[in-house]
Design brief:
Layout (H helix, E strand, L loop, with lengths): L16 H13 L2 H8 L10 H54 L1
Length: 104
């Protein structure tokens, strides 16, 4: 007559890119959170030297920080590059117009 239905908790939604970035920024100061994931890497098996794994982990975090800084720098330079491109186009148009006028 009545059937028992199990109630399972709702599956959590996947983290957003902002949440992932925030987590990675937290891990730069606290290597424990990343260390466990990185230790599963085949290069860092249980037989590998711990110092080598920590060095590789540190290198990866430095690379990640450098990439983040490069992205920020590119985002800052983009409007200036657009402006310079427009100025060059205007100069090119002026030279073309003067050349055309001198031919007349």
């Amino acid at each position: 007559m009545f059937q028992w239905k199990p109630s399972f908790p709702q599956k959590p939604s996947p983290p957003t890119i902002e949440q992932q970035s925030e987590d990675m920024n937290k891990c730069i100061n606290n290597l424990d959170a990343v260390r466990m994931q990185y230790m599963q890497d085949s290069e860092c098996s249980a037989n590998a030297e711990t110092n080598t794994c920590f060095q590789k982990l540190g290198d990866l975090l430095v690379y990640k920080r450098n990439i983040d800084n490069s992205i920020q720098d590119l985002n800052n330079m983009f409007p200036r590059l657009i402006n310079i491109s427009q100025q060059l186009q205007d100069m090119s148009d002026n030279v073309r117009l003067k050349a055309y006028q001198s031919i007349k």
